[in-house]
């Protein structure tokens, strides 16, 4: 984030809302929004305050922030360090929690990053963290009918992968995660079965192997 002379970073963030009021340039407002977004990604200690001011200063319902987060997930996920990765998931949590318009675009990118057959710590962490966020704030996205089938399909695919034999050291943790995934998906499928028919024949196939 750009430093304001005479101010440490925390104080600089504090003056952002008042500073934005005086901006008339669209590009300048966008630059402030991106500065707050990247502060959230790179400085966890300032993330909550930066996101709060992101909400206060947005003039496009966070569309710029959602677009940039989606771009990072789509193009740079594999190259990111651990801290920005964790913060991207934290930002997704905050977007869902605040019922942000178009937060489902970020969700779609996260679901695509949940790689089938990948039992690496990173992939399992991603699967479980997204599961935590969706479970905690399910009422903020369940009414988006186009989202439910995508979530159901993605987790049915993961459940099938997690049923495969693995080394003894991973078996217990994977079984616990798989149980959580099943407990999450079954009510979604039961309560939204008509919507989930849009998945097509893949739905039957995944139900058979899950």
UniProtKB/TrEMBL annotation:
Integrator complex subunit 3 N-terminal domain segment(s): 30-208
Pfam families xref list: Ints3_N
InterPro entries according to UniProt: INTS3, INTS3_N
Gene Ontology CC: one annotated term: cytoplasm
Protein's name in the database: Ints3_N domain-containing protein
Species assigned in the record: Macrostomum lignano
């Amino acid at each position: 984030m750009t430093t304001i002379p005479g101010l440490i970073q925390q104080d600089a963030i504090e003056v952002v809302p008042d500073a934005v009021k005086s901006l008339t340039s669209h590009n300048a407002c966008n630059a402030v929004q991106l500065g707050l977004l990247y502060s959230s990604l790179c400085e966890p200690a300032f993330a909550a305050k930066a996101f709060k001011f992101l909400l206060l200063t947005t003039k496009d319902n966070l569309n710029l922030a959602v677009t940039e987060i989606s771009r990072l997930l789509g193009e740079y996920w594999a190259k990111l360090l651990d801290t920005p990765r964790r913060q991207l998931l934290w930002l997704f949590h905050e977007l869902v929690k605040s019922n942000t318009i178009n937060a489902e675009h970020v969700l779609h990118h996260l679901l695509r990053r949940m790689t089938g057959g990948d039992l690496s710590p990173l992939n399992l962490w991603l699967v479980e963290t997204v599961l935590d966020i969706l479970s905690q704030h399910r009422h903020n996205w369940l009414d988006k009918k186009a989202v439910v089938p995508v979530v159901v399909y993605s987790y049915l695919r993961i459940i099938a992968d997690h049923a495969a034999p693995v080394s003894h050291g991973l078996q217990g943790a994977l079984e616990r995660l798989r149980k959580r995934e099943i407990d999450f998906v079954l009510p979604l499928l039961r309560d939204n079965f008509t919507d989930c028919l849009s998945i097509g024949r893949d739905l039957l196939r995944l139900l058979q192997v899950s």
